[in-house]
């Protein structure tokens, strides 16, 4: 497996990626990968240091003849999203990613691959290690915690970097050049509830929603994919309204930036209503599966009898919970009026946990408009507060406003057309790149984003195109050769 990856072209990139993927690197637990990068930089005798928040900076002098070109910052993030299929036995804390080659794709065995943003990191590492690639003075910036708060980019101090141009390697379509992105804010709703003893007249059931595609909660939100938390709530609401269903536990979704693929609930229904509940709920399940039949072919919704749970949620809080999740928007809120087919504002109801007298609901709201971001955030906040939740807004970060006069954008776009005989797609994206925050610390820096084709980011279906990585690598080398003079 590892040998197959290491023999792929370009070997210098895939070998670095294999080394990187052997190091556990979950968001907020990046100590091992930080040390890995420090050791890497020092092994090349390059200036290497870690800033106050944990970002790693490695500087490499220009190759001969490129000393008078503008200094370039090459930037990618070290952390990766940890997602796995329910049946996959894997410990992200101690295991390296198990990679596979399937045709033109590199994928992982039941987990996320980490190509987001590991291929960007590996490419920068390959440039730093090369003695053949021509380039100006380089500053490699490896940020931490991009996936769960962008605290690395937020904590980066001004004055550390001298670069005039920043190449962000975190775009996931190889024919796209990024010039802007959405900002975001986390919305967390919490409340407690009183647990009541289940009655002997009830019977227990488990409900499972699984097999959904999931995916990136920004880039994939426009697809209208199924959200396991919304589907589960629809079933619970119907059962509660018509048959007095009582909720004991819910465990739905995981990370805020991943569209939830699975949700599981433990519930009870009075024995006298159980048969009618099963009949109507299975009809509802058939309707839901029909609604998603063209985009969620593997959706499985199952109800099974289980031992009666000992305790259930008090009925008033349960009513507020199911109604507030029903009322809370999930998906696209507004399309960008100035750019065709680009989502401006959206929300992902990412996490719903009910257990032991506590409820927590986690959302990620994204927007390229700060005012509309807060408009939707306030709408969601209101929906939950009306049901007695305490709501906190956190991890707020700005979008990256497009610069139509960007010199590096013109250079990169023209170079793409020259190399490939067709124009690149120059666009903003509905994802949370770090460029907006980096631009706050370095307002004069000229930025552009690009990268190899990656599919299914933030899900166990994540895969990276081998041919696209070859294309991206050749493009990156040419960009470094064409950086303008100071």
From TrEMBL:
Q: Does the keyword Transferase apply?
A: no
Mention any one GO cellular component term assigned to this protein in its UniProt record: cytosol
Keywords from UniProt, A to Z, are: Cobalt, Hydrolase, Metal-binding, Metalloprotease, Protease, Zinc
- Name the reaction it catalyses: Hydrolysis of dipeptides, preferentially hydrophobic dipeptides including prolyl amino acids
Q: Does the keyword Cytoplasm apply?
A: no
The record's Gene Ontology biological-process terms are: proteolysis
Question: Which stretches make up the Peptidase M20 dimerisation domain?
Answer: 208-277
**What terms describe the molecular function in GO for this protein?**
metal ion binding; metallodipeptidase activity
Source domain of life: Bacteria
- What SUPFAM superfamilies does its record include? Zn-dependent exopeptidases (SSF53187)
The prosthetic group or cofactor this protein requires is: Zn(2+); Co(2+)
Enzyme Commission number(s) from the entry: 3.4.13.18
Q: What's one Pfam family here?
A: M20_dimer
Which PANTHER family does this entry report, sorted A to Z?
A: CYTOSOL NON-SPECIFIC DIPEPTIDASE
Family stated for the protein in its record: Belongs to the peptidase M20C family.
What protein name does the entry list? Cytosol non-specific dipeptidase
Q: State the species of origin.
A: Polaribacter irgensii 23-P
Lineage, highest ranks first: Bacteria, Pseudomonadati, Bacteroidota, Flavobacteriia, Flavobacteriales
